Amino acid sequence: xGAGMRRMVAVSGLAASDLLPMHEVxxxxxxxxxxxxxxxxxxxxxxxxxxxxxxxAGFATRQRTWQIGRIAVQHGRAPSLEWLRTPQRLRxxxxxxxxxxxxxxxxTRARVGDxxxxxxxxxxxxxxxxxxxxxxxxxxxxxxxxxxxxxxxDIAGLLDSARARPMLGTTARLLxxxxxxxxxxxxxxxxxxxxxxxxxxxxxxxxxxxxxxxGSPRRAVGNTALRLTQLKRVIHENLGxxxxxxxxxxxxxxxxxxxxxxxxxxxxxxAAYILAARLRETHRALLAPDETRSIAEIALGxxxxxxxxxxxAFRRRYGCSPRELRADALAGxxxxxxxxxxxxxxxxxxxxxxxxx
Length: 357
What we know:
- The chain is α+β, with helices and mostly antiparallel strands.
- Helices cover 45% and strands 17% of the residues.
- The chain has 14 helices and 11 strands.
- The strands form 2 sheets. A 6-stranded antiparallel sheet has the order 1-3-4-11-6-9, with helices on both faces. It has a 5-stranded antiparallel sheet with strand order 2-5-10-7-8.
- Helix 4 packs across helix 6 (194-213), helix 5 (170-186) packs antiparallel against helix 6 and helix 10 packs parallel to helix 13 (322-330).
- The protein is globular and about 50 Å long.
């Protein structure tokens, strides 16, 4: 990757430190029998993966990931693969980002609920990671964009109404073509342009989604999703309160207990969502280079009043203690982006990046 970085600097005229950070992982240097498992490790536990018929001969793949604003962008190339986000997986991680996928050269299939969709090559396809989904794709390239729901609450209803169907039409083609070429542009993009890039793509995604959502029979679903988004916003605004629980939400937000439980049931329940939100905030703060608060102060700030319970919950979710994560961050390990098997740095799993968005 060093030679590749030198080429990027030469083309852009920027110093390496001024480029948008890129996390790159590859299984190409591993023995064939280890490649598929290594690929799954780098992607984290967001979905369950089933290798295609050629995986026995190896699963050579390479992925590059960038963050622009609150959006994560990943470009990858891999053999055929099926992946599933199951109800069990939903309850385990409580990740509810939207995922926008573009396969520039291959036709793919996806199932959300009982309906299978055939997605033309180059067509954007939006799914919500808070609901079960199954994806079958042949080998080739893909580009994905992860959008955290809490960061884009103002267009939540629009995106939910447009999900689980291929985006077609002139605006959607413009979005698909732009997403397909984005990784090439990000190779030489300066850090300073990340906020503008995020805003531009968010506007384009919203425009393409609006053409799909017009006349959609999912208006009721969109309204339900909007109510869920409003409740999530209230939760995030009150994470530090000792009063935050299901009863408090019902009293202050005018929602019945039955409705509250129905809305959060796909995410493992209200209590599980609140716990996951608190853990994500502590994780994000522990990795922030400008964070000066102690671990105890960070935990208290998001509603963890029992240090022992906090440490146990954190380790169950992230596989390390808060102190270990902060030590890795201070040592610079959390920013490493190198091929699998390299000894000098730690590969950043996709799940960790998503928890920081």
